[in-house]
Amino acid sequence: MLASFTQVTAAGTGAGSIHWTQLLTAWERGRALSLTEEGQVVLLVQHLNLTELHMEHGSQRRRLLEIGNRHGNSESLYTERQQFSQALDAASGTVGEQAVVGLYLDRLLSWPSVQALLKTKQNRGGDGKPILATSQAALVALALAIHEDESE
Predict the structure, then answer these.
(1) What's the rounded Cα separation, in Å, for the pair 99 and 18?
(2) pTM of this prediction?
(3) Domain spans of the chain?
(4) Residues 6+ apart with CB under 8 A from 112
(5) Which of 94, 90, 93, 84 is nearest to 141 (CA)?
(6) Sign of the dihedral through C-alpha 26, 8, 121, 108
């Protein structure tokens, strides 16, 4: 799943020319490898989902992608990631381990198939709106607010 994530995400974020080893920061990669070794499927999915959204909408994380840098200012990057994490936690669900293992057993495990599970799981909130769309809108608004703060 991690290999699929790096391939799909590099292409999806417009960082297709960056080698997959430069896609993730040292901390992101270490955390993903640790969760993989521990067999923490649900936590790995949550970590990769947040990482992808951070790459897409985080101004500092986006800059690292653009220059192919895996290091950056760890404190400010961590703060930005935590803000995205809080917004995502408030607006999204997660995927069950059995569903991911089922994909693996059916030889269908890939990041796009896990994303499809996340979208199905996040189906609709109490207001009838798709939760995924709500969480993405919240993350975009958060990214804009962070960018405005940095500009001042």
Answers:
(1) 31
(2) 0.72
(3) 2-151
(4) 4, 8
(5) 84
(6) negative
